[in-house]
Amino acid sequence: MSTTTIIEQEDTYTSGVYGKRLLAIVRGQGAILWDAEGREYIDCAAGHGVANIGHGRSEIAAALAAQAQRLITCPEIVYNDVRARLLERLVQVTPEGLSHFFLCNSGTEAVEGALKFARLATGRTGIVATLRGFHGRTMGALSATWEKHYREPFAPLIPDVSHIRYNDLTAAEAAITEHTAAVIIELVQAEGGVHIGQQAYVQGLAALCHERGALLIIDEVQTGFGRTGTLFACEQYGVQPDILCLAKSIAGGVPMGAIGLGARVMESGHISKGSHGTTFGGNPLACAAALATLDIFEQEDLPARAAALGAHALKRLQALQSPVIREVRGLGLLLGIELKKRVQPYLEALIERGVLALPAGPNVLRLLPPLVITEAQLDRALDIVAEVLGATPNPERETQSVAETHEESSSPTAEVALLQRMLTIPSLSTHEGALAHFMVEQARQMGLHAYVDEVGNFVASTHAEITDQQPVVLLGHMDTVPGNIPVRLEDGILYGRGAVDAKGPLAAFVCATARVARQGGHSRPVVVVGAVEEEAATSRGARGVIKRYQPSACIIGEPSGSQAVTIGYKGRLLLDGCVTQQSSHSAGPLQRSNEIAAAFWGRVRRHADEWNQEHAGKSSFAALLPALLTINSEQDGLAERTSFTISYRLPPNLDIANLRTQLQRWALEDDVHLTFSGEEVAYQTTRAIPLARAFISAIRATGEQPTFKYKTGTSDMNVVGPHWGQNMVAYGPGDSSLDHTPQEHIRVAEYTHAIDVLECVLNTI
Ligand SMILES: *Cc1c(COP(=O)(O)O)cnc(C)c1O
């Protein structure tokens, strides 16, 4: 489903309470998300802090699958093995003093239950919450939430709830009385703007509660499970909550909440049977996921990772000099950048550049990446944040600024390095994924907009959005034929599989497009496509873009030599034939299957010779050229069978339907069973088209003499040519006679010459 279809469908049927970004996320792995168009995003939202262990975890999938086959549902009217294990485990991993747990299904439910338990245990009604606190959206939890526009439409909420200033002990002192059942706080106010609780405040609050007989509820729905650098933030404050609220990341993404209960609750004597409950609470499926999640936290020491990466990120962000940043705050990987402006436009700009982040209130940008994010991904996200906030980076930082990177990537050595690195990434047909993602990363660093589309093509362009303008499309391909050739640069020659066929032309396309993008002012968008499966009969990549563009001009990325332009490709037709005969004695009257097959091939040859005498003259491009690719006979004592494959190279003026009918007629006469495949019509344009003329003057401008070529093979030109019109040529550096050979190599001088020619062409058309 395309993004637009998904958005339309959701918008038609959803309640409408969510303000959504115009993105349809369909897949995730680690800290990377992909949208329905295959575009990649660095996830700095982690599903609001749910995906701490990262997306696409096979351990969670396996735990869920195994448990689902055993038992999914089991309300707490009976006991269950998985639940028993999780309850014990939660008591073990949470701060001391929490001896029992109530299991539920979400954060708001954990808070809801906490408030009920507090009232039950103390026999009091008052709840003290804080300004900017967030605790959920159901009526009870909402009463403790501060944000006015979440609350006001639903008033009256539960009575006896007051909100006091956060980090203000004097205010707490005045608010906590003998009617107070509980004080509820977050240790870092996450939704409310990433405000960090002070040690003295939290400890003072705990003491005050104790003194006045009120319970301390700590809401670690967001700060829990490693987010702030310890498994629970409580550990950094040295306080023992009477009630601890957990949810979000507890079960690796599966909905679940939990309420930890301390001695003052359990020993109150008021937690009686039937006083609270929930149908789904403690279901074996969620419990199994939670156990697998806790294993991951232990094995990967994610809290320590959050602490280290968080400190690194905080340092980088605090060093940014930006006119829009007011303050940077954070604990672990819960990071907030307070802006002097509204945050919304910046969030959109981040999405545009492939980073998904969150707000925290109207003017705080919140970063909440999965704790498994790699340092490189985090740095990349921070670079983009800096870019979007218009920050000049700290001079002390060694990493280059984005602007410098752009400068770098345009140098001739960087352009050669790009191709060299591409050659080291294998990309056989249908296995182009790694190269595609590498290309996206590179293109973005070179200042282009880039993504992987739904069929797996790499797409990069000068413009973020290709709307109704007719773009110039540069269609290369990523896939190569098999055969590893060690990558090396020797005497100005770069060796490697794909140097000529695939990667040389594609790299030249990207470099030339990045050059024109950097010069700016190119009003007609240029799109580079690195197609998948060009070498396969499917041509899946090229077929996937036929309908997407209506190009004003198209350059196909195939080696022609940097001074030459290809203006025609022959067509192709593959046919598989099969003849079956009853086994007979060699002297018998029956003709053998291999003789029949050979006779059929004889007809094909003679027909082609006659056709060529009549139509083609001496031109091999205009000739009909059949080749017998394979022929095999076998017999099993009862029947003997011969199968063969014939490949035709077709000239432009040949009627393929006629040819097929002719072949079928002979097949019928000879009792041969035929199947056709790989049909491509020849494509031919002329040197008079604007694009060819642009190449002539560009090649002349570099002091060389342009020539034109026709190719006897096929390329993606055959696929898109019939749909995209005549203003199309194929061009690319490299000697095409090296295609598919063990000697495949390209001269660096020719490669850079081709980039110069392409740059010049893009600037003239
Ligand atoms: C998200 C959140 C909640 C509410 O959790 P839901 O699962 O969305 O109901 C409560 N408290 C805090 C601190 C939260 O961040």
UniProtKB/TrEMBL annotation:
One of its GO terms (cellular component) is cytoplasm. The modification N6-(pyridoxal phosphate)lysine is found at residue 248. Pyridoxal 5'-phosphate binds at residues 107-108, 134, 219-222, 279. One of its GO terms (molecular function) is cobalt ion binding. Its EC number is 3.5.1.130, 2.6.1.118. It catalyses: [amino-group carrier protein]-C-terminal-gamma-(L-lysyl)-L-glutamate + H2O = [amino-group carrier protein]-C-terminal-L-glutamate + L-lysine; [amino-group carrier protein]-C-terminal-gamma-(L-lysyl)-L-glutamate + 2-oxoglutarate = [amino-group carrier protein]-C-terminal-N-(1-carboxy-5-oxopentan-1-yl)-L-glutamine + L-glutamate. The active site is at 479, 534 (proton acceptor). One of its GO terms (biological process) is L-arginine biosynthetic process. Keywords: Amino-acid biosynthesis, Aminotransferase, Cobalt, Cytoplasm, Hydrolase, Lysine biosynthesis, Metal-binding, Pyridoxal phosphate, Transferase, Zinc. SUPFAM superfamilies: PLP-dependent transferases, Zn-dependent exopeptidases. It comes from the Bacteria. Zn(2+) 1 binds at residues 477, 501, 558. Catalyzes the release of L-lysine from [LysW]-gamma-L-lysine. This is Multifunctional fusion protein. It comes from Dictyobacter arantiisoli.
